[in-house]
């Protein structure tokens, strides 16, 4: 079974909730309240060096795995050098580890290390980074994360010019018969979610749009409804 069929099944898109802007004092309860409305839990790891913010360590990830043993946990490491951070997070039990192409000179090796730990590897690229920079790695990863804001902080506005990368990645996937998921993170909300799916996005990461809402579960429903109304899915 291929990556896309394995992870997406018969769903037209997946929705991941980023916990970056969630209330850290009630994190477990807030995620639990979402129930099955989201498909993945997205964990942003920041080192205060590669990006100016700092966030979660492996201890939080281990706790998440304990609280939610059956959930699909998607870890995005924004730290440099990327290879120095893989081991500590791999031991905490994520399903996917995505690293930034800009955070290492050894992208292929990083992907190998992640896969050898029994975890699916992903590669992320910042808004100013062209798709051509990650093309040599695409046969070796299961996910490509397109950052639609400059990484570091939640609540930013999506940069629409970045959406051309989605179509490039879809085209490359078809031409080379590859099987990676395309994920988008940054400024995702109900209003722009349909255009993201139309452009080829398989996984939408929403953080502030969910946990910044008065009713996070209803916010998830609003995102799904916008996409369904536009695409009939």
* Total number of helices: 9
**Rg (C-alpha, Å):** 16 Å
Strand content: 15-25%
**Low-pLDDT windows of residues:** none
Tally of discrete structural domains: 1
Derived from helix and strand composition plus strand pairing, the structural class reads alpha/beta
The CATH superfamily is known as Aldolase class I
Write structural notes for this entry:
- Helix 7 (193-198) links the parallel strand 7 and strand 8.
- The radius of gyration is 16 Å and the shape is globular.
- It has a single domain (3-231), classed as TIM Barrel.
- The mean pLDDT is 92.
- The protein has nine helices and eight strands.
- By secondary structure, the chain is an alpha/beta fold.
- Strands 1-2-3-4-5-6-7-8 form an eight-stranded parallel β-barrel.
Structure summary:
The protein has 233 residues and is of the alpha/beta class. The protein has helices at 3-8, 27-34, 58-67, 86-90, 107-116, 164-175, 193-198, 208-211, 216-231, and strands spanning 14-18, 40-46, 72-78, 96-100, 120-125, 143-147, 181-185, 203-206. It starts with a helix and ends with a helix.
């Amino acid at each position: 079974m291929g990556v896309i069929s394995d992870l997406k099944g018969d769903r037209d898109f997946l929705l991941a909730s980023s916990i970056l802007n969630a209330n850290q004092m009630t994190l477990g309860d807030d995620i639990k309240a979402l129930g099955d409305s989201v498909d993945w839990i997205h964990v942003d790891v920041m080192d205060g060096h590669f990006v100016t913010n700092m966030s979660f360590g492996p201890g939080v990830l281990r706790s998440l795995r304990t609280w939610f043993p059956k959930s699909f946990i998607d870890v995005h490491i924004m730290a440099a050098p990327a290879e120095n951070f893989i081991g500590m997070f791999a031991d905490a039990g994520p399903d996917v580890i995505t690293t930034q192409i800009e955070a290492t000179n050894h992208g292929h090796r990083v992907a190998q290390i992640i896969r050898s730990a029994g975890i699916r590897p992903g590669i992320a690229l910042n808004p100013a980074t062209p798709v051509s920079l990650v093309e040599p790695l695409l046969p070796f990863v299961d996910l490509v994360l397109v950052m639609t804001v400059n990484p570091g902080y939640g609540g930013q506005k999506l940069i629409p010019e970045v959406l051309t990368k989605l179509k490039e990645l879809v085209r490359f996937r078809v031409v080379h018969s590859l099987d990676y998921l395309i994920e988008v993170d940054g400024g995702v909300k109900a209003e722009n979610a349909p255009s993201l799916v139309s452009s080829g996005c398989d996984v939408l990461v929403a953080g502030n749009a969910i946990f910044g809402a008065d009713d996070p579960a209803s916010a998830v429903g609003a995102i799904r409804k916008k996409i369904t109304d536009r695409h009939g899915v």
